[in-house]
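The material for today's practical consists of a large collection of protein records. Getting from the letters to the tokens is the skill we practise here. To make this concrete, we reproduce a full record directly below:
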Amino acid sequence: MNCPSCGQPTPPGDTCAHCGATLAPARRLPLGVIKWAVVFFAVAGVAALIVSAAHTAVPHVAIGDIGATMNLAYVQISGTVVSAPTYDAASSYLSFRVDDGTGALSVAAYRAETRSLLSAARVPALGDQVTLEGTLRLRDDSTGLTLAAPERLTVQHPAPQERLIASITANDDQKAVTIKGQVRGIRTPYPGLTLYTVRDTSGEIDAALSGDTVALTGPAPELAVGDPVQLTGIVTLYRDTPQLSIPASNTLVKLDTAIALAAARRTGSLNAADDGALVQVVGTLGASEPFAAGVRFSLDDGTGPVELLLWIDLYAQLGDLSAGSTVQVVGAVSVYRNTLELTPSNAADVKVLTAAEAAAIPTPAPVPSPQPGCGGDALCTAVAGAVAGQTFTVQGGIVVAQSYAQGFEFGLRDATGTITLLLPEAIYKAIPGVETLRPGAVVRASGRVSLYRGDTQIQPAAADQVTIITPGAPPAGLPIAIGHIALGDVNDTLTVEGRIAAVEIFSKGKRLTVSDGTGAITLLLWQNVLNYVPHADQLAAGAPIRVTGLIQEYQGALEIVPQIGFDVIVTP
């Protein structure tokens, strides 16, 4: 054979006789062996990565150290939940904020992770200490983390301190506290938020329960004003005022034992030094005296009287309080014109322990009213005073209407005289056909009789105690020219027509300038009257208007002052 290297003939063998080149053919590695080797090394590499990952801790980072280069990094953080979780049940989206002292970020959990947290009852709440893992999501204006391992989320609830409400200050922000007290109010500022006002012997505070918290932790207990409760919450600030945020529905518990809000006192022991104090007294109701904004009672336990002041809305909730009834009252002490007053804030503060004897409560009498118009007559005044506090029914025609700060007064006249029908706005607005309650109407009314500055008044306790028998009609006839109105017309009721030249809003209503070409006059609309002006939104410059009102003089200028809103008509 010829040598492949030098080309010379050479005898068979492994080496060329001339140049010494190797003549044996090369042995190649089989392809199958290479394939299996590739698979082996790939599996071994993956296994090595898994083992390495299992034994390598997820990096724990401080929120303040997170930078732009860490986007999509998988990290672990720890901190305090500083916002109540928001939750969308439809998408199972959950979000809350975590602060570790170096910074804060938003944590988001999506469908599978959220459901895992809910099933394990491990949804973090406001105030909880948490450690969690996830993927960082960095944007220009925010830093967030998407929760990736709900099973590795650890939650530690804060240990609350039992506190008196008055001891809670702005310095307690984000602290967990437990209070016991009485529910003094329940309101819903907007759908998804319920505020409970809770009071103990030291003070009161608002506690907020969000709709998201209810969706995550279950329904809250059914509560009413006056119920005793124990509440654990996190102190938060609303416009620098401390309030409690309820982290879970089960931290709001209705108690079986009543909670006293104030120390028991004797009526005779109260004095000016107690101004502003909350006290509890038990006494017997004396004579009542209705006034523009409510009713006053004398309250005495045998040691000396105090004046019990009931605002009209509260009085309407209490039903029939009568002289001679024994009541327990929790209220704030105040001094008004050298008189001690005790003012409860809600119906739960007044409890009737013993009702007055039936004989002491007169049944409603038929028309007419007793001595309805005294007009300064001494004998008539004495008779009216003798029936003050009793309930009667009267019927008569309205001869005059007048507004006051809290409502409206109407003069009712029958064959025997005149009586003042007193209607606080809460009752006035609920009377069917109230737009016809005006001079000329015939009205039947039931209520308690009182004597006020020599005049006899009757005040119904509810709208259904007032019946309009004959509706009153708007004033008819030609209006008077504004330029012809003079000081001699003061206290007269006149009608004018014109156009609005200017509108001014002030704290208690609106002032409008009305001109008819002969002159201009100020139209004064107090807010309680403005509330009942038809199409009040059209009271703008240029609008035509017809007004019936009382002519009054203020600082040398004449004004027309409607006494009911339905006497102001924006004409087409």
Notes: Residues 358-386 have pLDDT under 50 and may be disordered. Residues 161-254 form a domain with the OB fold (Dihydrolipoamide Acetyltransferase, E2P) fold (CATH 2.40.50.140). The two ends are 128 Å apart (CA to CA). DSSP finds seven helices and 33 strands in the chain.
